[in-house]
Amino acid sequence: GAAVTVADEASGTTLTLQGLDVTFGELSEAGGAAAWRTQLAADALSGEVTGSAHLDWSTPARGLVLAGLAAEGRGLIESREWSGRLNAEEVLWTGRTANARNLTTELRAAGTESLRITLPKASWADSKVEAPQAQAALTADTADGRWEANLTADLLRQDIWAMENLTLGTRFAGNGVAAAPAMSELRGRIRMPGTLPGEVALEGLFFGSPATVSARILPAEETDASDGRTRPLVLAEVTTGVLRAGPLSALLWRPDVLTRFDLRGRITMEGVAELPAVRALRADAELTGGELNFPGAKAEILGGTADIAAHVDAAGAWRAALRLRNARADAAFRGDALVPLSGKLSADATLTGDLTAEKRLAQIDGTFRIEEGAFAGMDLAALRATLLADQPDRAPSHSLQPESSTAFTELTAAFAQTGEDPLLISNGKLTGRGWSADVTGERSGEAANARWSVRLAIAVHPEDEEPGFPLPALAIWKAGAPQWSLDWPSALAAVHEAKGEPPLTVEGVIRSAKRAAEDFWNSLGSKEWKLPELPEFKLPELPDWKLPDWVPFGQDGKDEPAEAGKPNPV
To answer: Going from the N-terminus, what domains does the chain have, and what CATH number goes with each?
Structure first.
């Protein structure tokens, strides 16, 4: 068979047809039938194509007419299997020009993506292409759900490819998600680079949120050494409102796409719907050779200011570092009827994961500090006063109500989580006026239904000739204020040993009667406030932790949270 090569100098694209075998039948002066088979190759595309058409050359001045054109093919695109077909009602070819009516192309790749392009009218002459009201429909199945996109535009090609009067509608339906599919519609234009830089100008709704996209596309200058391809440079700015996480995660990582261009840009986002604590995200983005960097991102998290640095390699492995200052601890418990913890929050953390894995977050490590705060469910000052004055056999229930609280000066701790394991809190130190405590704990389950378990080893310090005493405490809860169980007998024994029996006074009897009445109303059938018999509860101590060397902030040692287990002086 013959070999034919077609080259497009403007784009540098070359298409080669090898082993071209054409069979004619039913020939006459007016025309006939033709069928063909060939092997094609173009850049990373290869495969076999077969086709047929009815030929009409009855009017030489008009040219050659191919009616009922139909072709099918299959092969490889960058090692991925593809199959497709092409149909046209009519193609008129003069040798220098071509005109087509109702041209339709369908392409399917690897069984997960399909593309359909329809051109009601198309013309080609001297490297100029016009196809008004071109239509394209794309469907792609990802690990997160199904993408559907529909595009309508006037397709033009003279010096550059351009899509004018463009309307792009998209739909994303997440796997196993009951919520309505996310919809978007953007309008504008796209012009690919050629002799002049290209540009992108789109605005509208991106999955229900207002969005604008503006970019310049500079001609390719760099070469990827792995495959010899040149990559254009995109200078972009993207602004959106509050987006949903599902479409974002599905969009985030497509190595087959991200290795085709380099990027320098800025992304501004009001927030993510599933993360209400994160607002006003602003990130500079750099994409080079398929590796994505966010060297200087900022966001508002829990009412504070966060500096973020992140890197994603070409295989999808990612790491990030976060430095949070001037946040509010109570904002982490948004929606709870009673807030279990409050105060001024600061934190440092590193996160690692893999965007190609089912669970994209693999590990988180860090430290936090809360200053001038309070924890709920216990009034430690009232408990101390009652114990020292009257030494009752049980802890007074009025000091252990959900609305009870204990102020503290500082809380520092380390935290860590691996995969779906519980989040561990260890090496914690809690200090208040006249007391201190070691802190350990864990959080299991999803954030919306998290189960907390916290143990305090409280030490009440001697003060004003009054003795100190230990007061171990344990709380396990899911929402709202914790319910504390106290090892009251240990505290009572220490005070009794130091002070002896309390004197019998009228005031003491009145206080005891009042406590008894309060205990009755607070908890009918009151139970002993005694720490249950549990196995030794001790979480592993985490090693000293600090931000890694690659993080571009927090390396000067200034304004850092105290090292876990070593609180700053008060």
So the answer is: 1-126 (2.40.350), 338-570 (no CATH)
